[in-house]
Write a structure and sequence with these properties.
The structure is a single chain. With 398 residues, the chain is of the alpha+beta class. Helices cover 35% and strands 14% of the residues. It has 13 helices and ten strands. A six-stranded antiparallel β-sheet has the order 1-2-3-4-6-5, covered by helices on one side. Helix 11 runs antiparallel to helix 12. Bound molecules: adenosine-5'-triphosphate and magnesium ion (2 copies). Adenosine-5'-triphosphate binds next to strand 2, strand 3, strand 4 and strand 6. It comes from Sorghum bicolor (Sorghum). Keywords: ATP-binding, Kinase, Nucleotide-binding, Serine/threonine-protein kinase, Transferase.
């Protein structure tokens, strides 16, 4: 973490880019960076500041991300294509090294937050549809207009346009930006906790204001009615985190994607393209609708996570065609020449539409509609998967 080559330790009030951006509070982090809400004093607006770890590889990755996000911004002058907007970038010298920083529009909570807010019970199909539309618009733009494969689609990397908790939205809560670094005791934390306390107070007031409309507030600290709170907000969202994205014709990594969202062709090593993003997208849609991961592979006795993953896929989607199963550089590790898994012999088939009815209590028509939409994106043959543009035309969304 916070050492040479690692994260930059920022504090509220810290200034960046010659004083233009003022750090407000930390809003996220990943393996590569910390992300801060910052105030842009030049344009009087809140922005997100992604401060990359400083070691060379991280800096390199950030420069790559800047290259891709610049293309994204250039091709979408009205910022309507559901992909994060890059506003600026610069380098910041700190005690741990020089950090590449990306300035982007400030967005709301991630889909992961949204799923957790709903206690992993799914967010309702009309909301799922709304989010699917946005993500597909973003993917269609990346794939067919720019030639970019995202390669790391997952709920953490799709952000809502607005925050679930309105009190956390600096614009809607009327949050006054911190413009100065608190003076006085730098180490005791009293000064900093003062500004955090103010933030919390403001936040509480804003929550009360917004919730009054339909939620009765109990005593102090009454919990926000989380599900109802969603009714008022638009579920438009944007694709973020281009740290692993690539031009389709300049692929670097063989192994892409986060485990649970990884496409079968990536696991068996038979090459990938835009359709790998479509696989991840289907996994996200399922997770939004049910609150559960579509595939949650584990290391099992005598078999690897990869093999368990392939087995889970086949149990839900049917047997992988032999031609596909045997086509990858790693096929021999997992499959025999008939295209059967070598170490997992007995599969318990449970098709997607049945899972939706029997495990998640979907009505038959809901299950049919949703699985008709998802199944084609989960085709084992990548070329058979529909493009984002084709999915946008699917009757389930219209
Ligand atoms: P990873 O480990 O996934 O590669 P990363 O270090 O590349 O992560 P991001 O995924 O870009 O970083 O950002 C980390 C988190 O910060 C996001 O999941 C999100 O919660 C938050 N975040 C990022 N950008 C924004 C933004 N523009 N507005 C609001 N929150 C953001
Ligand atoms: Mg991320
Ligand atoms: Mg990243």
């Amino acid at each position: 973490g916070y050492r040479k080559g690692g994260y930059h330790a920022a504090r509220p009030g810290d200034r960046f880019a010659g004083g233009r951006f003022v750090a407000q509070r930390k809003i996220g982090w990943g393996n590569f960076s910390t992300v801060w809400l910052a105030y842009d004093t030049l344009h009087s607006r809140f922005v997100a500041l992604k401060i990359q770890k400083s070691a060379r590889d991280y800096a390199h990755a950030a420069l790559h991300e800047i290259e891709l996000l610049s293309a994204v911004a250039k091709g979408d002058p009205t910022n309507s294509k559901c992909v994060l907007r890059l506003l600026d970038h610069f380098k910041h010298a700190g005690p741990n090294g020089r950090h590449v920083c990306l300035v982007t529009e400030f967005l709301g909570d991630s889909l992961l937050r949204l799923i957790r807010y709903n206690r992993n019970k799914g967010i309702g199909l009309s909301r799922v549809k709304e989010i699917c539309r946005s993500v597909l618009v973003g993917l269609d733009y990346l794939h067919s207009e720019l030639g970019i494969i995202h390669t790391d689609l997952k709920p953490e990397n799709v952000l809502l346009d607005s925050t679930i908790n309105p009190a956390k939205d600096p614009v809607r809560s009327g949050f006054t930006p911190i413009l100065d670094r608190p003076v006085g005791n730098q180490y005791g934390g009293t000064v900093i906790s003062f500004s955090e306390k103010m933030l919390k107070m403001r936040a509480r007031r804003a929550v009360a204001k917004i919730s009054q409309r339909r939620v009765s507030i109990g005593g102090v600290g009454a919990q926000l009615e989380k599900e109802r709170c969603l009714d008022g907000i638009s579920l438009k969202c944007k694709i973020v985190d281009f740290g692993n994205a690539c031009w389709a014709d300049q692929q670097l990594a063989g192994e892409i994607q986060t485990r649970q969202y990884r496409a079968p062709e990536v696991i068996i090593g038979s090459g990938y393209s835009y359709s790998a993003d479509m696989w991840s997208f289907a996994c996200i849609a399922f997770e939004l609708a049910t609150g559960d991961l579509l595939f949650a592979p584990k290391n099992c006795q005598g078999c690897s996570e990869d093999e368990d993953h392939l087995a889970l896929m086949m149990e839900t989607l049917g047997k992988m065609p032999r031609k596909i199963a045997t086509s990858g550089t790693r096929s021999k590790d997992y499959f025999d020449r008939h295209g059967d898994l070598k170490r997992i012999r007995r599969l318990k088939f449970w098709p997607l539409d049945r899972v939706l009815v029997e495990r998640y209590n979907f009505t038959e028509p809901d299950a049919k509609g949703f699985s008709d939409f998802l199944r084609p994106m989960l085709d084992f043959t990548p070329e058979n998967r529909p493009s984002a543009a084709q999915c946008l035309k699917h009757p389930w969304l219209n």
